Hints:
With 113 residues, the chain is mainly alpha-helical. Helices cover 76% and strands 0% of the residues. The chain has one domain (3-112). It has helices at 3-23, 27-48, 56-63, 68-81, 87-93, 99-112. The longest helix has 22 residues, at 27-48.
Amino acid sequence: xxxxxxxxxxxxxxxxxxxxxxxxxxxxxxxxxxxxxxxxxxxxxxxxxxxxxxxxxxxxxxxxxxxxxxxxxxxxxxxxxxxxxxxxxxxxxxxxxxxxxxxxxxxxxxxxx
Length: 113
């Protein structure tokens, strides 16, 4: 599976999970989503391993969706969480980037590779 496909699939499942979670879902369903998202994160990391092109944070700064200070804040938070979340997940969770800007940057990043 290519990086672009993996990223788009991940975003689709993550959005679906957020909607279901807001409605209240059973623990077994929550565990399924968590496991599926973790597997997708792994595939995305494998696809990006050694890939050339700009990093997500650089693209968001370049697009004006994020400044360097907020990028550094998110990177520190990502490391502190230690949950394996992707940078985009942390940025959205912290409210530092709108989902539309994130998706635009992800598409741009995937098209570069």
